[in-house]
Design brief:
Bound molecules: zinc ion
Order of helices and strands: HEHEEEEHHEEH
Strand order of the largest sheet: 2-1-3-5-4
Structural class: alpha/beta
Number of helices: 5
Shape: globular
Strand content: 5-15%
Radius of gyration: 21 Å
Largest sheet: 5 strands, mixed
């Protein structure tokens, strides 16, 4: 009888241990605060915004690049200011992103400290919020939020600026199904809309082919519910989701949009 009681106790204990939630798997963070450099998901894919990091409303007729000229920054000049929460050290990180655009576009896309201009980006540093941006110039003040985990990932920092310059995610292109397969069953419930694509009647990809290497492409595990891939490339050798820097194609599309 005693033996039975002990084994029942052990079984109960084992089930408690099994049921207890373990520490979060560092490869699959659910929030930006859980993000580490080992994560398989990018910082900009962890926000609660539309597609993770896009502030609504969307500009009309938007797919990968916005066609309507009103959503572009005049002459490629973007005015900005930092909110008061930015340290000089963090400002330098954002300015490194600005320099990346300026040098890769041959001084065509430039950022300028605001002195009273009506249209501008305010950079905010709110660690209780995800990385996010609007798509294109909205008119008046618009924000890009850079929590610490976004400032620490250069490609994500650059990614948010690319949204503000007028682009969507690469896998939103109408021709994406020829290049990637969306694994709908692996997507976290309620996040399916993050994998929308836009019709070919909307805008072109500025003459460029689908770019697996774009800084605007989701990673393979974005919004995964089960640790399985949500995006599988048709080309088995392709890798997606880099957040190192702008790809050559990203630069060409931007220069085409802004008539550089
Ligand atoms: Zn994004």
């Amino acid at each position: 009888m005693k033996g039975v009681a002990i084994s029942v106790c052990l079984a109960a204990l084992a089930s408690l241990v099994l049921a207890a939630p373990g520490p979060p798997d560092p490869r699959f963070p659910k929030t930006g605060q859980e993000w580490t450099p080992e994560s398989l998901i990018n910082p900009d894919e962890l926000g609660d915004y539309f597609e993770g990091d896009i502030e609504l409303p969307l500009p009309p007729r938007a797919r990968n690049g916005v066609i309507d000229q009103r959503y572009r920054w005049t002459n490629g000049k973007v005015h900005y200011q930092f909110d008061s929460s930015f340290s000089e050290h963090n400002k330098d990180k954002v300015r490194a992103g600005m320099d990346h655009y300026k040098s890769l576009t041959g001084n065509c896309i430039t950022f300028h400290e605001r002195s009273g201009e009506y249209d501008y980006i305010e950079f905010t540093h709110d660690n209780n919020d995800g990385c996010h941006s609007s798509v294109g110039k909205r008119g008046g003040r618009q924000t890009i939020n850079y929590p610490t985990w976004c400032l620490d990932k250069f490609g994500s920092l650059v990614h948010e600026m690319y949204h503000a310059l007028g682009f969507h995610h690469e896998q939103s292109r109408s021709d994406r199904d020829s290049y990637v397969t969306i694994m709908w069953d692996n997507i976290e419930s309620g996040h399916e809309h993050n994998f929308n694509k836009y019709s070919s009647s909307e805008v072109s990809g500025f003459g460029e082919d689908y770019d697996y290497g774009s800084v605007m492409h989701y990673s393979a595990h974005a919004f995964s519910e089960n640790g399985q891939k949500t995006i599988v490339t048709v080309d088995p050798g392709a890798s997606i989701g880099q957040r190192v820097d702008l790809s050559h194609v990203d630069v060409r599309k931007l220069m085409s949009m802004y008539n550089c």
